[in-house]
Amino acid sequence: MMDDSSVIAGFARLGLIVFLVLANGFFVASEFALVAVRRSWVETQAAKGDRRARALLPLLDHLDDYIAATQLGITIASLALGWLGEPALARLIAALLEHLRTGLPADLFARVGAPSTWLGPVAVHSMAFALAFALITFLHVVAGELAPKTLALERTPQVVLRIARPMAVFYRLFFPFVRLLNRSGVGLVRLLGIPPSRAQGGMYAEEIQHLINLSREQGLLEAEEHQLISNVFHFTTTTAREAMRPRADMVAIEATTPFEEILRVFEKTGYSRLPVYRGELDNILGVLHGKDLLRYLRQPERFRLEAVLHRPLFVPDTAPLDEVLRQMRQQKSHLALVVDEYGAIEGLITLEDVLEELVGEIADEHDLDEERIRVRPDGTILLEGSVTVREANRRLRLNVPESDEYTTIAGFIMTRLGKLPLPGDQVVHNGVAFIVEKVEGRRLTQLRVEPVAAEDARGQASTRPS
Q: In the 3-class helix/strand/coil scheme, how is the chain assigned residue by residue?
């Protein structure tokens, strides 16, 4: 039988093994948690007064050093587990096997025709070390590596806050060795011709958008929140041409228009600002504000158009919306005229148009209650030709290709047809038929969208029924 000292020694060896496995797991979890945690989240928690988050910030400031510290800890624990833990476990197993062997009948092996050396001292020793190696390897991989890694990735905030102070203590204790190892690693990387980067935690816009989409799919963001954040990323790539009101939809005042007629135009349109031109629309004189007419209501004969005109703001059609917004703020203007490469007026854009690209449609008391995209009871969709390709794709998931040659659905249809559209003309794209409904002059004002059969969609043809 085993005496008390042997039992105590056995428990001590088991305790050593458990401690080394837990230590290995601690450093593995620390490494993965430090890499996975978002610095912005830690800073937010620290700003709320979380002391653990404040203690964590220095670790993130010197992440390379602390990752080296976790690697040193993992190495020490792993080597100690192999150097001390495996022999300790082997002695325990050998003692158990020896106890088992002495309890067996002396002639047991002779009865079954087996050599008596099967459970001799050499065999017991070999079996003990083989079993110890297998058990230590299993514990090391499962309890010391895989489980801590999974825990750190699944519960990153909780884990990273708990490891901050212990890791800081370990780093201070082994500071010289950590620095030596880290500097050696950096030196080796330099020898390979790869300069180490100081940038940490940076993310590309595509990565942020991917996170936003994942948050929406997982229900962490409402549809409106997701759309608003997504619009921010498109804002700087959307041009004035894509957000403007085209020239054909512009309302402008000729310089010789009588005062009473100007009032009627403002009253009819509900606009607060209108461009003023002389002779032709490309000759813009300025912008007239409706409020400037109020002072002349009792004495209209005193009205002089030149006295109330505001300096016009012109922006190129290729200007991104963030630049358009900057110029509007700089000139304190809510309206800008969009010009093409030849200086001709292509359309106009208002501050409301710019903001709608960020927050969606903004309707005021003067806007007509008309939907530019309407769904019929039979499932077909009526679409105004002035709807932009980007808006149609976003709201209807049409996957219409964007191009520098057009910005609206009408432009897409005319490009595919290669001619002026007529009622009944249709374009089939990506399994969807775009059928011309209304044409005013040379303008496509309304079209119908409906799905087509698979065999009709294969051709992707543009046709006009006879």
A: CCCHHHHHHHHHHHHHHHHHHHHHHHHHHHHHHHHHCCHHHHHHHHHCCCHHHHHHHHHHHCHHHHHHHHHHHHHHHHHHHHHHHHHHHHHHHHHHHHHHHHCCCCCHHHHHCCCHHHHCHHHHHHHHHHHHHHHHHHHHHHHHHHHHHHHHHHCHHHHHHHHHHHHHHHHHHCHHHHHHHHHHHHHHHHHCCCCCCCCCCCCCHHHHHHHHHHHHHCCCCCHHHHHHHHHHHHHCCCEHHHHCEEHHHCCCEECCCCHHHHHHHHHHHCCCEEEEEECEEEEEEEEEEHHHHHHHCCCHHHCCHHHHCECCCEEECCCEHHHHHHHHHHHCCCEEEEECCCCCEEEEEEHHHHHHHHHCCCCCCCCCCCCCEEECCCCCEEEECCCEHHHHHHHHCCCCCCECCECEHHHHHHHHHCCCCCCCCEEEECCEEEEEEEEECCEEEEEEEEECCHHHHCCCCEECCC
Answer yes or no: is pLDDT of 106 > 70: no
Kindly report, residue by residue over 222-265, the tens digit of the pLDDT: 877 877 888 887 788 888 988 898 888 899 999 999 999 999 99
**What residue type is 341 in one-letter code?**
E
What's the half-sphere exposure (Cβ side, CA atoms, 13 Å) at 442?
A: 5
